[in-house]
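Q: Sequence in, structure out?
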Amino acid sequence: TPPSRCKFIGVHKNRMFLGSNNQYPGRVWWSEAFEAEAFNTDENFADFTRSTGGRLTGLIEFNDQMVCFTEDQMFGIANVDQDVPSIYEIAKIGCVAPDSIQAGFGVLCWLGRGGAYVWDGNEPPQRVSDHTSAALGKMSLSSHGGSRAAIYDRLYEVHLIDGNNTIVLTSRYRYDLVTKTWATLAYPSVKAWAPLTVATMPLGHVDANVRHPVYGQADKSGSDYAIYVGNVTTQDAGANYTCQVET
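A: Exactly. Output:
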């Protein structure tokens, strides 16, 4: 049976990956191929203990592998169809916000202790927040652990939220993957929305097959539980919003 009460879930090579529970905070398990509920928990797992980077803080499929993050390192799990899977360190760069881990347009983006990072799967991960505001500087799991992000329209959009689900800043930060520049999305009034996921518009829609962010309630003190589709017009909830570019 699957390990219980896991915090993270992913799919790779037609297998279900589950990671981190109360008993094994640094462990990742994977199921049998095409059998999402069939787990050999005695053999099909990898441990990322404190001696190799601490507890697990997220996982995602990218570049033909399952990428697993701790607070201080990132690892890869590949070749799970072979007798001996490949488990290796990718870089000594971890993640402090599980929901900031996003893949799209050929890159992987996330928030680590040093700020925002981008990885193309080949060259070493690059920190891309060196010259932005202090908000994307030194980060931690407690101060930014609830942060959420989405990738769409070749933009990586981040909303900073702390570990107690309280919004740190009302502004959203957008990193342009093409121009490699940052911009700020500012609302005319305080909104407790954050990216929840990305949806691909269905056939028949004017934006068919285009990725759009989906926003929803993020701050625990908010009261608006509606779901909003972003990047469609310059209005949401009947109010205009403006974009400001940071130099």
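The longest strand covers residues 193-200.
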